[in-house]
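Class, look over these structure tokens:
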Amino acid sequence: MALFLFVFWIILNGRLDWDVLITGAVSAILIWLFAIRFTGWSLKKEKQAIVLLPGVLAYFASLFVEIFKANIGVLKVIVSGKTDPYIRTIQTPLKSKMARVLLANSITLTPGTVTVQLEGDKLTVHCLTREMADGLTNFILEKKLVKMEERANGKRV
């Protein structure tokens, strides 16, 4: 985390002078120590975050693709004027509350779908069409979150 903060400092500053480097290094180390002391951050969590980083980047890239595809789907519905609203309840294999909330929010960010309820491992989703609802059964974002949970728990993916 300290290295990330230091690099972020240099990027934001835009120059490589000694005063910038020293101030950035000291600030990054102090913020890192503060995080360890007061937020429960640890080297174990830092290692886990680094291991999960490729999965997180892949997740957000997939989310962007899904949003783009859903925009085209909503555009087709608008042009055709044919809506078939549908509410579907899906059960997710995700274990952590954070992953389930991330999935629910990702579904809501995707045009044409809104997560109306998240209770335990069940999500109730309102979809603009039945085809959008059918797309939730093998949702790629859910699969990516399952892989990230497995990697976070130390299982081979």
The two ends are 25 Å apart (CA to CA). Helices lie at 2-13, 18-38, 43-80, 97-109, 130-134, 140-152. Residues 87 and 126 are 4 Å apart (CA to CA).
